[in-house]
Amino acid sequence: MQIYLVGGAVRDELLSRPVIDRDYVVVGASVEQMLSLGYTQVGKDFPVFLHPHSKAEYALARMERKQGQGYGGFICDFSPDITLEQDLYRRDLTINAIAKDENGTLVDPYHGLQDIAQRRLKHVSPAFSEDPLRVLRVARFAARYDYLGFTIAKETQQLMADMVANGELATLTKERIWLEIDKSLSDGCVAIFSDELNKLGALPIVLPMLKHWSIEHAAELAKNIAVLSKQSDNFKLISFSLWLSTCSLSSLDNIEQTLKAPNKYAQSVRDFCQHKALLSDSNLNAQSVLDMLNKLDIWRRPERFDIFCQTASAAQINPVCITQIQQAALHACAIKPQGIISQGFKGSDIKHQLNLARFKALEQSLEA
Questions:
Q1: Domain 1-118 sits in which CATH superfamily?
Q2: φ/ψ (deg, to 5) at 144
Q3: Contact (CB, 8 A) for 228 and 238
Q4: Taking the model in full, what pTM does it have?
Q5: Where are the domains positioned within the chain?
Q6: How many CB atoms lie within 10 A of CB 103?
Q7: Pairing between strand 120-121 and 151-152?
Q8: What are the distances in angstroms from CA 16 to CA 11, 146, 300?
Q9: Residues of the chain above pLDDT 90, percent
Q10: C-alpha gyration radius of the chain
Q11: CA 284, CA 293: separation in Å to the nearest integer?
C-alpha cells in the first residue's frame, strides 16, 4: 500500500500558490483494508475515503472506461493492482497528473513538470475528450493561471473545440456547469474564462445571455473586478452582476433555473440591470429614487440596496450620483411607520403618508 499526494495540491505547490485542499491516491489497497485502518468511505461510484484524523480525501487508484455520451457513464476499476501511472493517465491535464510520495519525490509520467515550465495546459491522453466538463474546467484553469503566462496547447484547444462542435456540452447538467462558474467567480477571472469559452464557440451554450460578448466588455469587466476585495463576502455576488451587466432584463428571466444561479445572485444582477440607468441621470428626482428604493425593498432588505451601490461603484458609474442616492436613502430610511402611526393615521393611509414623508426626505436631501 502506497500513498501519494496528487492533483491540484502538487500543482499549486510547484506554482508557489496557496494549497487549499489536499487529495491523496492510494495504490495497492482494497476497500476492506481502508475500512480496517479507520477510514470512512464516502464515495458511491468509486471508493473515496476520509482520513480518520485529518478528514482529507483518499481515493483508491482507479482506471475508467467510458460507456455512453457525456460526462457520466464511466465504469471504474479500482482493484489493488491498478498502478499510479494508470490512475494518473485518466486525469485531464499533465500539470494535474503529477504525484508526490511520502518522501517528497515527484512522480511525473506524463511530463507535467515540463508543461509547467513551458506554461502550457495540455491534455494527458485522448481520453480527455470523454468528459465535456473538461472544456469548462480547462477554460477556468486558463483564466486562473493567465497571470503566470499559461496558455492552452493547440492540440488540447482543438479537442475542446471538437467537443463543443459535437454537442457534448449539451449533456452537462446545469448544476455541474454552475459549479465551474462558481469556481471561476472565486478566482476573479470570469472575463478571461468567458474569452476562452468564446474562442471555442462554447459561451453561447454555457451562458446564452452573453451571446454578444466582446473583447471590450471583457477588458472593462476585468478592470472593474480588479478593484474589488476578494476578502469581501460579496465579491462573487458583485462580480457576477458586473459579468452579466450588459444583458437585457428579459434574458435574465428565470436564471435561477436556466443557470442554476442562487437566488441572491439572480436578484442582484437583475436589480443592477434594472436600475443602473438611474445613475446616469444628471437630474435626479425624488420620485424616481423612491420608486427604485421601493422596488429594491430597502425598508426591509437594505442589503439589496447596498449590493446595488457596491456594484455600481465597482462599475465606476457616476460616483457623485451614487453618493447622492446613498445619502438621500439614509434620510428616507429614517422615516419609520411608527412615526406615521403616532400621528393618528390608520389602515391604507399609513402607507400613503409613509411614501409622502419619504418622498419629502428624498427631495430635501437631493436638493441640498
A1: Beta Polymerase, domain 2 (3.30.460.10)
A2: -60, -40
A3: yes
A4: 0.89
A5: 1-118, 274-367
A6: 5
A7: parallel
A8: 9, 15, 45
A9: 85
A10: 26
A11: 13
